[in-house]
Write a structure and sequence with these properties.
The complex is a heterodimer of chains A (511) and B (404).
Chain A lengths: L1 E8 L3 H12 L4 E5 L10 E4 L2 E4 L9 E2 L2 E2 L1 H9 L6 E3 L4 E6 L5 E7 L3 H11 L4 H23 L6 H7 L1 H6 L4 H7 L4 H7 L3 H4 L8 H14 L2 E3 L2 H15 L3 E4 L3 E7 L2 E7 L2 E10 L3 H7 L8 H9 L5 E9 L3 H4 L5 E5 L4 H7 L9 E5 H4 L9 E9 L12 H20 L7 E7 L1 H8 L17 H6 L10 E3 L10 H21 L3
Parallel strand pairs in A: 1-2, 1-14, 2-11, 8-16, 14-20
Antiparallel strand pairs in A: 3-4, 5-6, 7-10, 8-9, 12-13, 13-14, 15-18, 15-19, 16-17, 17-18
Helix pairs in contact in A: 1-11, 1-20, 3-4, 4-10, 7-10
Chain B lengths: L13 H6 L1 H11 L10 H9 L3 E12 L3 E8 L13 E8 L2 E8 L4 H5 L2 E7 L6 H8 L5 E5 L15 E7 L4 H11 L6 E8 L8 H10 L3 E7 L8 E2 L4 H8 L4 E6 L2 H13 L7 E3 L22 E8 L2 E8 L4 H7 L18 E5 L2 E2 L9 H5 L2 E2 L5 E2 L3 E4 L9
Parallel strand pairs in B: 7-8, 7-11, 8-9, 9-10, 11-12, 13-19
Antiparallel strand pairs in B: 1-2, 1-6, 2-5, 3-4, 3-6, 13-14, 15-17, 15-19, 16-18
The chains are: A alpha/beta (511), B alpha/beta (404).
Chain lengths: 511, 404
């Protein structure tokens, strides 16, 4: 019988980070992964001369030397992975283009507080004070979160009220409420709201704190990517895990989580059964409950929670390798958010249907990282997220044509918005639909962001409920479906947090 | 000036609202039904039909094709549809010969329409010095069950990328992906103009002659030009497929070139196509296959030729000690030793066999090095395209397919 201290199922960002956290603490850890690569969606693939990034647009919380962010501290310092982070030149460009092809707004925002505020004043005059107050609120909220996490989940209400009153006041509101309270003009709100598509929830239903943290961190620390795709990051994480003494099995699928009475005790896999007192599942809890766990061990509350939640961000991505350089094609921006620039609640509704594609986050990797591919080429990706499982209704027979039709729509949208011609220069193209994400990662509906972090289930509420959720002995969940929600930074940090929680339980159990 | 935000109507109660968030959340959870959870969702179910890891088929019919090939009609065991494919894609099939578990990939040469009826066609050419094709020719019988992969590979028409006119350069049994494309055009699955320039030794040896003629007769978008190397006959081009023939049949139009055939043909055509100065964008070829003469490849360490090395293989908690020849891909050493190692393309491209090299040196010909950048950085190899150059220690992922 093979017995481990912990078994981590799934080598996505969250699983890898949990596995590293436990193995670094000297625990005997087995990591199993159904695919033959680590990373889940955080990966890469080869086509012809190109290696394509699968998912990463940008990471916050890396920071600069002297003021490093949380993710840098975790990856480079704590796990000791020598990732060379490549800075993204500007924060973003955003083009609002209406259905008739008319450009309504076009703005490019830099990182750095002063530069961002100055540029804001240029595009949306009269927001100096709002910007200054935004920074104050960001600083206060960041300090409050640091205090809360240092207080081990039981912060003093008195301290919170005294030192972080604004944080408490805005904490239960949505980003749009806070932008209004800060007296941003409508034009400025359009700029401040650009990142909503990274959360795939409109600005009326997100946690303002998580949104402000993301925007503030990006303005302060800038955005980063890895030098050689996400595969470098996740292979690096796996390497660190091995260095800490961890064991990993690839191409091995979990078939059942085994229980002894009401406690998880092992995993039946395609390569035999393995045992541990702690199982960490890097996947969607709904899928684990439906397929991996005996019904009797699921508490009614967890079943209700699973029923109450919605999956988030079913991705559609077009990857292209072009046989001309970005310069030759007149491409100057790393990332451009293209959308009609409507109210975010309306845009969210639109991506709940199989409509003509009107919005995308378009990237040209070479702008940030000139050495990513072969000389004389550049590579791009175009992403949009569906808010419902609309691809689930597509017939097998229609799939290829629809995929190509949607790919053409998204490429033509980019060409219309920027004036750059790219389609004639496509040397390689790959299109990922929600089915593709289902195929490689088994996420429900191809939704790579876990659960929608909206309204009652926003990330702030989740973090405050962390001790109430998933009280199943010996079983924890990590990754994008976790308390901090989606995104690379969040999954990596959640992985570490879940690992720490398991270490805490192990200490209590006297191991 | 300190910040004093005013937000919401309830003012002072905002803080209370904050601390009540977990309770609000509990109420939302309590109000939800406790229904059993779906085992799968619509997109997941479709993805499983489109990309099954493995499929089980039964040989329904075997017929000779040309002088040294056989076509196998495979039917799904369940009678239901097989996974759809893009014309030009291949399947990898698992074969157990003695104690050896191995795989081979074959292009799907039927119409994509037939997959919906539960039928695939593959054509296997007999390689006299081969290991698997003689076994298949001798042993496979109607009624036999086979385990095959989902359709794989990237040699297919992409309307956004490729020219409206495609020149398909085929050698011998390399016609198979283009047979699939011809059917796909006829049956409305693809829309492009396909001219197949098809090299065979003799008229008699032409694979799929009848089927190609039939499709070309009813479909104005499919054209076939036969090129015979060993015979000179009216109505046939003579010699090898050359730059001149490519120019002649592209007739001044922009073309995308697809190639499928033996390695010697690729090497010859690479030089021919170079004369025409085509950009990478316009030239695509099928899997190269395992390199048979590593000693003729650039950078080969001559001193290892003919040598045998010891390999320690770690796989899902097990350890094996096996011998490995420097003249064969490492994957073959696994298979000779009876290990079950994953593989599909066997050409260094798909990465299905990706393994971690823990100790030792391998020789990887550049032509079939399809690794990711960081795999090179972190010491991963594709054993199907890596030749042992010293004693080795490797960690190999599992293969969870069970062949009886």
């Amino acid at each position: 019988m093979q017995k481990y201290d912990a078994i981590v199922v799934g080598a996505g960002n969250g699983g890898l980070s949990s596995a590293c956290r436990l193995a670094k603490a000297g625990k005997k850890v087995l990591l199993i992964e159904q695919h033959n690569l680590p990373g889940g969606v955080a990966s890469s693939f080869r086509r012809g001369r190109f290696e394509f990034e699968t998912a990463l647009h940008e990471l916050a919380a890396i920071g600069k030397p002297g003021s490093r962010g949380e993710v840098y501290e975790l990856i480079n310092v704590d796990y000791g992975i020598p990732i060379n982070w490549v800075p993204v030149p500007d924060l973003f460009r955003s083009i609002h283009i209406n259905d008739e092809g008319k450009i309504i707004r076009d703005f490019t925002m830099p990182h750095g507080r002063q530069a961002f505020a100055d540029k804001m004043e240029l595009y949306a005059p009269g927001n100096r004070e709002a910007m200054a107050n935004f920074y104050k609120l960001f600083d206060e909220s960041k300090a409050a979160l640091t205090y809360i996490s240092s207080a081990n989940g039981s912060p003093s209400p008195k301290v919170l009220r005294k030192k972080y009153p604004n944080f408490l006041k805005v904490g239960s509101y949505a980003p749009m409420d806070v932008l209004t309270a800060l007296k941003f003009t409508d034009a400025a709100k359009k700029i401040m709201g650009t990142y909503w598509s990274y959360m795939a929830v409109d600005l009326y239903r997100l946690s303002s704190i998580f949104y402000l943290m993301m925007v503030g961190d990006l303005i302060d620390g800038g955005a980063y990517i890895t030098e050689h795709t996400s595969h470098q990051l996740t292979t690096g994480l796996l390497e660190a895990f091995r260095r800490f003494g961890g064991e990993s099995w690839f191409n091995v699928r979990a078939e059942e989580i085994l229980f002894r009475d009401d406690r998880a005790c092992g995993v039946r896999t395609t390569q035999g059964t393995v045992y541990a007192d702690h199982i960490i599942w890097n996947g969607n809890p709904n899928m684990a409950f439906a397929n991996m766990v005996p019904k009797e061990v699921i508490p009614e509350r967890e079943l209700k929670l699973a029923n109450a939640r919605k999956f988030s961000a079913r991705m559609f991505v077009v990857y292209v390798g072009l046989n001309k350089t970005a310069e030759e094609l007149g491409i100057k921006d790393y990332n451009i958010f293209i959308s009609p620039g409507l109210d975010t609640a309306d845009e969210y509704k639109r991506v709940g249907k199989m409509e003509k594609i009107r919005s995308t986050a378009a990237l040209c990797y070479n702008i940030a990282n000139p050495n990513i591919g072969p000389l004389g080429t550049c590579q791009m990706s175009f992403t949009m997220a569906y808010s419902k499982d609309v691809w689930g209704d597509v017939e097998l027979r229609d799939y290829v044509n629809l995929k190509n039709e949607k790919a053409r729509e998204i490429l033509e949208l980019y060409e219309r918005a920027t004036g750059a011609s790219i389609i004639p220069y496509i040397e390689e193209i790959a299109v990922a639909t929600p089915w593709t994400f289902c195929r490689y990662t088994s996420v429900p509906e191809g939704g790579v962001y876990g659960y929608e972090a909206a309204e009652w289930d926003n990330c702030m509420a989740r973090m405050m409920s962390i001790d109430r959720d998933y009280k199943i002995k010996g079983l924890k969940f990590t990754g994008a479906a976790g308390p901090r929600g989606d995104g690379y930074s969040e999954a990596l940090l959640t992985g570490s947090l879940i690992g720490k929680m398991v270490l805490g339980e192990m200490a209590k159990e006297g191991k | 000036m300190s910040l004093k935000i005013k937000i919401g109507k309830i003012g002072a109660l905002d803080m209370l609202k904050f601390s009540k968030m977990p309770d609000v959340r509990e109420r939302a959870i309590a109000a939800a039904p406790a229904n059993p959870l779906p085992k799968a969702y619509a997109s997941n179910a479709k993805a499983e039909l489109y990309h099954p890891k493995w499929q089980t088929v039964v040989i329904d019919e075997i017929r000779p094709n040309g002088s040294d090939a056989k076509t196998f009609v495979l039917k799904s065991e369940s009678g239901k549809a097989l996974a759809p494919f893009r014309a030009g894609q291949y399947i990898s099939l698992g074969v157990k010969i003695g104690k050896t578990y191995t795989t081979r990939s074959y292009s799907l040469c039927g119409s994509p329409e037939w997959a919906y009826q539960g039928v695939y066609n593959i054509t296997v050419k007999l390689e006299d010095d081969g290991f698997v094709s003689p076994y298949i020719h001798d042993h496979w019988q109607v009624g036999q069950k086979l385990t095959i992969s989902s359709p794989e590979g990237h040699l297919y028409y992409e309307p956004i990328r490729d020219c409206k006119k495609v020149l398909a350069l085929a050698g011998g049994s390399g016609i198979t992906p283009f047979m699939g494309m011809a059917y796909a055009i006829r049956d409305g699955f693809e829309d492009f103009d396909l001219t197949i320039i098809f090299g065979s030794r003799t008229e008699e040896g032409i694979v799929y002659r009848k089927e190609l003629d039939e499709v070309a007769a009813v479909c104005s978008k499919v054209h076939v030009v036969h090129v015979l190397s060993d015979e000179q006959k009216d109505g046939f081009e003579h010699g090898f497929i050359s730059a001149e023939l490519i120019e002649k049949y592209s007739a001044g139009e922009a073309v995308t070139i697809f190639m499928c055939g033996p390695q010697a043909m690729y090497e010859f055509l690479d030089r021919e196509i170079e004369k025409l100065c085509y950009d990478f964008k316009y030239v695509r070829r099928e899997l190269f296959g395992a390199i048979k003469d590593p000693w003729n490849q650039e950078g080969y360490p001559e001193e290892i030729r003919g040598k045998s090395f010891q390999v320690t293989v770690r796989q899902s908690g097990q350890v094996y000690e096996i011998p490995a020849s420097a003249d064969e891909p490492l994957l073959v050493a696994f298979e000779r030793a009876g290990l079950k190692a994953p593989s599909r393309c066997r050409s260094g491209e798909c990465g299905w066999c990706r393994s971690r090299l823990l100790k030792g040196e391998v020789f990887i010909p550049e032509k079939t090095d399809g690794r990711r950048f960081s795999d090179v950085e972190y010491g991963y190899i594709h054993p199907c395209a890596s030749f042992p150059a010293s004693d080795l220690e490797v960690e190999v992922p599992a293969e969870y397919l069970n062949l009886e």
